[in-house]
């Protein structure tokens, strides 16, 4: 029992010694503690050389930063210098222009004063002569303009018959070529022309009324089947001409006319018109073979008939202006002879030449027929 206690005591002493040694090492190796009981800060290790190196490093860092700031401000200074140069150039240009403007003003002012002095004092010096001549010309021109304005304004105030819109008579000249067809409706015959054409020269009287002069031409052909005279059945006539002879009719005329435009439109201008004309016409047989019928004592061949007559006409149509100087014209017309022929001439005696009588009768029928026409043409404005 004692031996066990001794063993336990020995072990306890050995453990206590080991623990005390460990505690001492921890105390010796721990951080120092200041007088207030707090751990003391660790002081860096240094010497004079290290401090010199660190001082040089800080100096170079400061120099680098300083150079960067200087470069930045130098860039700003460069930009500002360029702007200063540009503004200086602009100032110089404006200075030059203003100096010239002031000089021009002074020169003109001096010239104006000199001109005023010459005119007001009525000087006869050679230096004043150009100013006086120019002044007189300008005054005369202004007086003419004022007089013209008074003349143009006076009709609008004092006269209700002046031309509308300021248009003057014969201010517009128009050339109107046209072509179409005409049908003659007589008591017996109904004939249609191969060609109906003409040319008119027209001028305005007012903006809605115009007058003109025209030339017209008509041509037609027809086979003479309509007379049914017994002589056409004779052997002599049948052998010479068959069932009938071809008649050719031509007429030419001059007429004067007036037109009233229904509207004042410049592009589409419908109108009504009337005219009076003088016409000369001729008729003949295209088959002019000579023949003689001994049984009837009739001769055939070389028949010809010429006549002149006065005609009246009515028209309705419209001008359609494509441009200011060119347009189209569409027109329908009616015309007829006023009375019988003024004069006539026959190539043969109708008593011995029945076809001569036939030409005369057909000519009179055409003169008194109702002629209906339709035309299309152009309008050329000068």
Please describe what this structure looks like.
This protein has 382 residues and is an alpha+beta fold. The protein has 2 domains: 99-162, no CATH class; 167-381, Beta Barrel (Porin), CATH 2.40.160. Helix content is 40%, strand content 33%. It has 5 helices and 12 strands. The strands form 2 sheets. It has an 8-stranded antiparallel barrel. Strands 7-8 form a two-stranded antiparallel ribbon. The longest helix is centred in the N-terminal third of the chain and has 74 residues, at 48-121. The chain is elongated, with a radius of gyration of 62 Å. It starts with a helix and ends with a strand.
Key traits:
two-stranded antiparallel sheet; 382 residues; 33% strand; Porin; 8-stranded antiparallel β-barrel; alpha+beta
């Amino acid at each position: 029992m004692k031996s066990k206690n001794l063993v336990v005591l020995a072990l306890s002493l050995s453990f206590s010694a080991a623990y005390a040694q460990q505690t001492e090492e921890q105390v010796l190796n721990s951080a120092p503690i200041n007088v207030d009981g707090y751990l003391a800060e660790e002081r860096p290790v240094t010497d004079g050389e290290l401090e010199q190196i660190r001082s040089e490093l800080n100096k170079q860092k400061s120099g680098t930063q300083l150079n960067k700031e200087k470069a930045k401000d130098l860039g700003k200074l460069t930009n500002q210098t360029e702007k200063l140069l540009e503004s200086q150039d602009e100032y110089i240009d404006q200075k030059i222009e203003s100096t010239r403007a002031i000089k021009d003003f002074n020169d003109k002012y001096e010239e104006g004063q000199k001109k005023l002095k010459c005119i007001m004092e009525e000087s006869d010096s050679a230096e004043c002569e150009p100013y006086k001549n120019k002044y007189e010309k300008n005054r005369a021109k202004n007086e003419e303009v004022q007089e013209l304005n008074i003349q143009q304004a006076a009709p609008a105030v004092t006269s209700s018959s002046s031309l509308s819109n300021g248009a003057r008579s014969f201010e517009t000249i128009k050339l109107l070529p046209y072509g179409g067809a005409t049908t003659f409706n007589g008591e017996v015959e109904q004939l249609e022309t191969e060609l109906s054409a003409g040319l008119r020269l027209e001028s305005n009287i007012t903006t809605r009324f115009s007058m003109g002069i025209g030339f017209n031409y008509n041509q037609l052909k027809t086979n003479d089947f309509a007379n049914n005279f017994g002589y056409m059945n004779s052997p002599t006539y049948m052998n010479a001409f068959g069932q009938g002879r071809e008649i050719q009719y031509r007429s030419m005329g001059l007429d004067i006319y007036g037109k009233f435009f229904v509207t004042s439109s410049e592009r589409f201008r419908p109108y009504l018109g009337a005219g009076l004309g003088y016409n000369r016409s001729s008729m003949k047989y295209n088959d002019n073979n000579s023949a003689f019928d001994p049984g009837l004592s009739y001769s055939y061949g070389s028949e010809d008939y010429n006549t002149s007559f006065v005609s009246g006409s009515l028209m309705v149509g419209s001008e359609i202006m494509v441009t200011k100087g060119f347009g189209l014209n569409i027109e329908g017309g009616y015309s007829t002879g006023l009375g019988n022929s003024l004069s006539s001439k026959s190539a043969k005696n109708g008593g011995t030449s029945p076809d001569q009588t036939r030409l005369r009768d057909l000519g009179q029928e055409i003169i008194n027929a109702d002629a209906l026409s339709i035309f299309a043409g152009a309008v050329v404005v000068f």
